[in-house]
Amino acid sequence: MTAGLASRGRRLLSAAVAIVIGVAFLTASLVVLATAKAGVEQSVAAGIQDADLVVSLEGDSVPAAAYDAVAALDGVGSVRGEGYVSGERGPRDWVYGGPLPVSGVTLLSGQMPAADGEVLISTALADEGLAPGEELELAVPTGAEEARSTSLTVSGVADFGGADIMLSYGPTFAASDATLREIDPDLTYQLLAVELSGADDAAAREALTAAVREAATGGREDAAEPLVLVQTGAEAAEERVASLTGDTAVFAAILLGFGAVALLTAAIVIANTFTITLAQRTAELALLRCVGATRGQVRCQVVLEAVVLGVVASVVGVGVGTGVGAGLLALGRRVDLGIPLEVGLQVGALSLAVPVVVGTLVTVLASLWPAVRATRVSPLAALRPAGPAADRRRVGWVRLGVAVLLVGAGAAAMVYAATEREILAGIAGGVVSFAGVLVAAVVIVPAAVHGLGLAARVAGVPGRLAVDNAVRNPGRAAATSAALLVGVTLITMTSVGAATGQRTALGEIDRAYAVDFLLTTDGESRPGADAGAGADSGDGAGSGAAADGDDLDTAALAESGPLPVALEPSVPDTLAAVDGIAAVTPVDTAYVVLGESWGGTRAVGLDPATAGDTMRSETLVASVGPDTVGLSNLGMVMLEVEPGDTLPVTGAAGARDLTVIELGLGSSVVLHEDTLADLAGDDVRTGGALLRLADDAEVAAVMSDVNDVADDHGLLAEGAAVERAVVVQVLDILVMVTTALLGAAVVIAVVGIANTLSLSVVERHREHALLRGLGLTRGQMRGMLLTEGVLLALVSAVLGLLLGLGYAVLGIQTLLPADTTVQLAVPWARVGIIVGLALVAGVLASVLPARRATRVSPAEGLAAA
What we know:
Helices cover 57% and strands 16% of the residues. The protein is an alpha+beta fold. The strands form four sheets. Strands 3, 4, 5, 6, 7, 8 and 9 form a seven-stranded mixed sheet that branches. A six-stranded mixed β-barrel has the order 15-16-20-17-19-18. A four-stranded antiparallel sheet has the order 2-10-1-11. It is globular.
């Protein structure tokens, strides 16, 4: 067997390469996922994963009294609560504080808090002028008219990194629990991490756990088990990681799914390789049968060869995949994907053993059917000289029936999944339908080659021979194109799906918040509001436009809101000068009353003729009319209205019934500027500005500069620039990673085409020698094989594009929520690249087979046949 493998090493090389790539893909996926999971656990669950018990209340926070009751129990060593406080250093200058993280903190200066009243501040708070040894003065809200002043000593400055999500962004500080309780005596906790000191055995631990549960409930019988959740640290950590990494779990499924696809593509190449190799060894296997070997022994030999090939190639693939995984993680640390990856490379038994087992199993399974086919021929028939190849164009009706059944059932499952948002049904339907396409490929591929081959026949004898050779054996043509068909389908599906998902996601953000930034002034108290002054219900164009039959006191409702403050004239120019701001549009503002009870709401007046410079959606701009009012999703929920409903809107100068549209600008509502003038009258001020970022802007830097301008001029800054940037970054990374990983499937496909063409050249050795003897030149022979490879590659590309587009449309419809309007996007440039790469694959795949076919002289080839 070993000698046989050595003698056929070159023929099996492509199968080995396919196994190495597929296994490396799977190994890299497992290593990256294991490392990412360990990083997330260290980041978000470090404070609880080593705790003996974790106490929480379902749907509520744990009160301070429960903390004290649990801490007072005999057998409880220590209690650490996760609670957060807040206070103001100045007007709208909020600072947030939380417990000291147990790990992941980098001390930059000073020291860790050693006494009550000391805090460790973030770099953002240090940038505001605080240093170790100085006092942090906070005004803490108490619910009364005046806030309580608190003075804290800064012990040090630290980079919290990803140690605590609440502390990692903005001006924050960390302190001991006692200090946090001093700041807020009514502090509540998300959970309590409990360390036990008196649980020596299982019974004692169970009794202490029950005591902790009872103490956390405060002895109330009505607050029993459904409310209080007591878990081990490991259980709580796993639950937290799962709740915070839903997207990571999806990404894990995507990575492992692509790994499975790569192995499937490799299996196709392996099966094709073994089929043709065993066909060429028919005489050898027949001779073994003649000297006494049974069919079982021959099959066993082939399977053992597959086992050896699979194990060796899989071990190599694991080594390659581990290196690739380490490289991807290093790149991820430099790019900052938003996932904590600072832990070491996680390479465990699972990451090493599973790929080897899977790679070997795939290789063995791929070799079984070729082994069975090779041993069906009787020894005497196999030893006879091979005659002319039988006509293999006939395709069984059973195969066509099975193909139609599989495609129909799969398509029905995908349509059902897209309608009902059943992801598993969609995946199953895609797999089943694609299996049907592969079964029907023996009909589809030759027919498509015939159609595309009309142009090739014009090239003369090589073109006509190429078309005839490509369709002479439908099974061989289907096998040659199968691997590339898988790769092109997947890349098209991923590209179209990602582009559609990105456009749809950004469209949803546009509807939720139509501009990158909105800056507005604060309102000021209306002079004499308590005396009913400041509005004239009999004046203004809208004074008589209240809903029929409503006893609406327009003046009283309008006066419940403040007066807007005019924007300083220099602000628009200052904002326009910020690097990264593409457009600035000043807007009118006023305060209006929505409905009959919700007052003091800021309204922004838009002019559709100019708003398009800063708003992201032309559709939304066009929807703003004199009779519309734009509300955010939250605003519609609070007012219990939907798009198309009628809503009374009241201003200082009158009221009007307006049609609700889905267009919110943060906490503000949107009116046509003429409508705002009619309703608010003299209250209208140029009190805001819309900002649009340049497409290549650094969002964090622009946001910092905009906030500086807002602070200098006392403005409120809102916007969806950060959300948009996060969505774009995540989708870009997803497309980049999946496209790169799917490149492995394309490489396997190229190897498969080259391998199948190369082995088919060997299979048609006598035929090619006869053609050379009849006058076909070496150049014509190379042209024939080149045309054959390009035709098969082009057919694979076209079919893959059509299938990928269909799968992407149904897939994205399945993944997105039912109320989401899918906006199809086809990246035509990438589609063109896919077709170009497929043609290049066909050209490259034909080079070595053509070279081999032309090196043998006609006489030598006929003599050896």
